[in-house]
Amino acid sequence: LVFGVPVHISRHLLSSPIVKVLTFTGSTAVGKQLATLAANNLQRCILELGGHSPVIVCEDADLATAIPAISEYKFECAGQSCNAPSRILVARSRYEEFLFR
Questions:
Q1: Residue 1: exposure state from Cβ atoms within 10 A (0-12, 13-18, ≥19)
Q2: Distance CA 96, CA 101 (A)
Q3: In the prediction, which pLDDT does 84 show?
Q4: What is the spatial distance between Cα 84 and Cα 60, in angstroms, rounded to a whole number?
Q5: Which residues are catalytic?
Q6: pLDDT band with cut points at 50, 70 and 90 for residue 27
Q7: CA 98 to CA 101: how far, in whole Å?
Q8: Strand pairing partners for 89?
Q9: Cα–Cα distance for residue pair 67/71, rounded to 1 Å
Q10: Which pLDDT band holds residue 61 (cuts at 50, 70, 90)?
């Protein structure tokens, strides 16, 4: 782990010719900053940015299966997974049942 001001750490690490590849999962704004810094040394970037990972629960969904799966995916890795659901869109006809299950 590296502690400090993120922009200072990024500048220091990405100014090094030792760093050949940057991988980052996070916001689009920070991804743009990192890509700009990496471009100075032509370092490769792998960026996973700005997703909202919606889950869609349709009218014919098996809620007994869906709800535990959604909960598990949401909280795996303490919610720090790039594909952890952040929005759950439930068919209006199933909303109450989904909510109180």
A1: exposed
A2: 8
A3: 84
A4: 23
A5: 48, 82
A6: confident
A7: 5
A8: 56
A9: 6
A10: very high
Closest CA to 57 of 43, 68, 49: 68
Q: Assign 3-class secondary structure to 6-51.
A: HHHHHHHHHCCCCCCEEEEEECHHHHHHHHHHHHCCCCEEEEEECC
Phi and psi dihedrals of 16, rounded to 5? -85, 135
Using the structure block, give the residue that is written with the tokens 């809620």.
Answer: 63
Condensed to tens digits (0 to 9), the pLDDT of residues 30-46 reads 999 999 999 998 999 99
Tokens of 57: 């629960």
Q: Which two structure tokens, joined as six digits, stand for 87?
A: 């929005």
Q: How many CB atoms lie within 10 A of CB 54?
A: 10
Length of the chain: 101
Cβ pair 88, 54 in contact under 8 A: yes
Q: State pTM to two decimals.
A: 0.56
Tens of pLDDT, residue by residue over 64-88, are 999 999 999 899 888 777 778 889 9
